[in-house]
Structures are given as structure tokens and as C-alpha cells.
Amino acid sequence: MDHFEYRDGVLYGEEVPLTRIADEFGTPCYVYSRATLARHFRAYSEALGSHPHLICYAVKANSNLAVLGLLARMGAGFDIVSMGELERVLAAGGDPARVVFSGVAKQEAEMARALEVGIKCFNVESRPELERLDAVAGRLGKIAPVSLRVNPDVNAGTHPYISTGLKDNKFGIPVDEALAVYQFAATLPNVRITGLDCHIGSQLTELSPFLDALERLLALLERLRERGIEVQHLDLGGGLGVPYRDERPPAPFDYATALLERLARWPGSEHLTLLFEPGRSIAANAGILLTRVEYLKPGETKNFAIVDAGMNDLIRPALYQAWQAILAVDTRQPRDTATYDVVGPVCETGDFLGKERMLAIAAGDLLAVRSAGAYGFVMASNYNSRPRPAEVMVAGDTAHLVRRRERLEALWAGEALLPDDEEAH
Ligand code: LLP
Fold first, then answer.
1. Is-contact 146 130, C-beta < 8 A?
2. Residues β-bridged to residue 151
3. Using one digit for the tens of pLDDT, what is the confidence trace for 130-183?
4. Which listed residue (29, 56, 121, 347) is catalytic?
5. How far is CA 222 from CA 156, 274, 293, in A?
6. Which of 40, 54, 55, 60 to mutate to test the pocket of ligand 1 (most atoms within 8 A of CB)?
7. What distance in Å separates the CA atoms of residue 114 and residue 283, rounded to the nearest whole number?
8. pLDDT at residue 42 in the model
């Protein structure tokens, strides 16, 4: 459930009509709902009840400081994949002791900074990374807490670009090799084994791949135990899907219940802290992209609704053929209904937000692209020299500008002309 609903024919974000946001902040513009973010976060923490747990929100899904700050105040931890994400978490008031660091290509400087601020854990994805981390920690006189990200080789049944837990993917350590790598880790002087981690993919709509992965991780924990290696936490990654259209993914409650049921049969599980790294399931349906129709262009075979947001603002439809609902914001005026491809201003045929959508619209109308709170703004680019959109967070009857629209000068800030050169004349 989210807090974007029609009232008397106008789409609202919480108590704020989206028409007002467009008037005040312009379009295109991302709008997030604070109550929805909070509700989604609580769905996880309440589902886990008294079992020791930490919800490490995946910063990559939506890294706006207002989003991170809200979740930090609610007690969230964070899953980061870069120094930039770490600094954002710190800038938003997040607790470094609740940060886990994922990613296949951690650089020395990133490791050093994470050790300096004292993160909870490095999710190590390979043996060479372990060696590098040991060396960096040794130089700094620190002990690095680690969990190994294992690749359990389960099919998440999701889009191939966002499936990460198969043998063929670049992520994690194959589950069959993990035992040896753990034993190697145990010999390193500057790392301390604290956990076991996996992340099998994103937008999962079934529980069975998660449970299959859990089964493989528990089997591995068993073997580690036999060799005297104990972990304090089990990190199951992110990946729970959301309804974009007619998907019916399990709710966090069902997910947590199924996991806890299985874990209850595992000796010692009450001391095993559960970590999760949800991104999409917290942020996606807590946001929309607000855009205005510039032109309607009827055609022989297709009608186009040309809007002021493009693939540079929201790339998911172009990149993954993702389907996101598109709604007219103000339905009070009578309009003819027609089927449109909703396309952006970018000079690419792939620049669409939705295809074959039935809409009752006229030029100048506002549209809302739903489920845009995750992997929306964070994947925006400046292609076609288009400034990135504004971001607004509604909270009750107030709309807060949480990132102003990028200014034109920002597009070339940091660039330089060549020095005057005779040969150019
Ligand atoms: N943890 C790790 C290690 C991850 O790689 C990811 C996402 C997450 C957690 C969060 O997963 P979530 O709960 O959001 O499914 N851009 C794509 C999604 C890429 C996901 C990458 N990894 C999209 O727009 O669909």
C-alpha cells in the first residue's frame, strides 16, 4: 500500500495534490511519500519481531539524503556499494556501525574509509578482495569484520540483468568454494569473520528461491561449525519484489515468517542476527515521477504522448522493458481517451516511459509514472544535456524540496576549454 491516491479526481501524494507540486517545483520531478517509506520500513522490522535483526536499506535504490535520514532515524542500517554511498549515509546521520559494504570491486581507499569510520561488516566477494582487505586493515592497525558473499546458484526467476545468484553471474563466491575461502579468512591476522551473506537477485515474486538459498547457506554454516568457524549474522540480501502491474510478490511479513519458521529448526538460530538489504520493496512504490505532456502527436499506426521526462530521468522502461503504471494526475476535465506510447524528448527510439497506454489526456496535462521511487533518480543521467529533475518529499500536507532541479551550469561545471592553440586558427 502507498499514499498516492485520487481525491475528487486529482492524484495526491499524502495530503498534497500533485498539481500543486508541479506548479511549485516544475516538471519533471520525483515525488516521494514519507509515510509510505516509513510504512515499508516498519513492515520489515515488525515482521522480524523479537528475532535479532538489522534492516540495512540498500542505498543504491534511492540515495537522497532525506530518504536516508528518515530511515536512519527509524533505526535502519544501510547496505552500501561505494565510498559515495558511505559518505551519503554519514551526511544523512546514519550510524556507520550499522553499515554493510557490498560490491565486487572495492578499492583500497574505500576500504580504508570504511575501516576508519567503523562499519559493521564488509561483504567480501572474492579471495583477492579478502587479501586486499587484510592488507589495508593491517596498515591501519584495524581488524576488518567480514562476511563472505556466497553465490548459492539458485535461479531467482527474474530479469537476467537483475539476477545475481546464478553461477554465471560475477557476484559472490561459489558456494562450493566458500568453505575453503572461509578457512583462508580464518588464517588472516587483520580480518574477523562475523557473518555469511548472499543476494540472489532483485524483483523476486516468489519465496522459494529465497528459501532454497537459505537451505544452502545453512548447510554451509553447518560445515563451518564443524571446522570451528561460527558467524554472528546471516545476511540474506535484498530482492523482494513489488507490484508494478499485476505481480503479487510476498509481503515482508510472509517472507520473514517463512524464514523464521525454517530457522527455528536450526540449532542456535536464536543467536543468529538476521540482516536484510531491501531497496526496491522500501522505496519503489513510495515514489512517482511527475511529468507534463508537451505534445500529443497522433499517427497512422501509433499515437504519441510526448512528455517532458525521458529515459535520462527514468531509464527502467528503456533498459529493462520495465512496465510502470502511468496515470493522468487531474481527471476533472473531460478528455477523449486514446492509446498512446508515452515518449520523452531524448533523441533515441528507445526513449519511452510506457507503450500502448490508454489515457484520457490533452497537451499540458500532468502524468504520474508510478513505482518510480527505487532505481529512478539514482539512475538518471544528463544525456542530451538535460539537467536532472527535482526531488520532493511529501510529509502530510507539506511538500519539501529535497533536491533542487539541477542547474544548467552544473552540466558543464568541472569541464574546461582547451588553452588557446595556434593550430586551431
Ligand atoms: N543488496 C545487494 C548486494 C544488491 O546488489 C542489491 C541490488 C540489493 C541489496 C537491493 O535489492 P532490491 O531489494 O532493491 O531488489 N536497477 C535495477 C535493480 C538492480 C538491483 C541491483 N542490486 C532495476 O531498476 O530493476
1. yes
2. 174
3. 999 999 999 999 999 999 999 998 877 765 555 666 666 788 999 999 999 999
4. 347
5. 24, 17, 58
6. 60
7. 25
8. 98
Q: Which of 91, 31, 36 is nearest to 59 (CA)?
A: 91
Nearest CA to ligand 1 atom 18: 162
Residue 17's H or E segment, with its range, is strand 16-17
Supply the pTM of this predicted model.
0.97
Enter the C-alpha cell of residue 35.
509515510
β-bridge mates for residue 330, sequence order: 10
pLDDT at 323: 98
Annotated binding residue 320: yes
Q: From the CB of 165, is ligand 1 less than 6 Å away?
A: no
What is d(CA 285, CA 39) in angstroms, rounded to the nearest whole number?
A: 11
Mean pLDDT of the chain: 95
Residue 16 one-letter amino acid: V
For residue 375, the 8-state DSSP code is S
29 is catalytic: no
Sign, CA torsion 246/250/251/252: negative
- 275 bridge partner residues: 54, 235
> CA 99, CA 77: separation in Å to the nearest integer?
6
C-alpha dihedral (8, 12, 18, 19), degrees to nearest 10: 10
Of 213, 210, 201, 199, which Cα lies nearest the Cα of 158? Answer: 201
* Bridge partners, 174 (sequence order): 151
pLDDT beyond 90 at 297: yes
CA-CA distance, 345 to 318, in Å (whole number)? 13
Q: Which domains does the chain have, with CATH numbers?
A: 4-31+284-411 (2.40.37.10), 103-276 (3.20.20.10)
Q: Does ligand 1 have an atom closer than 6 angstroms to the CB of 201? A: no
The set of cell numbers assigned to 292 is 507534463
Torsion, CA 3, CA 73, CA 403, CA 252, rounded to 10: -40
C-alpha cell at 373: 521511487
In this structure, which amino acid lies at residue 306?
A: I
- What's the gap between Cα 151 and its chain centre? 20
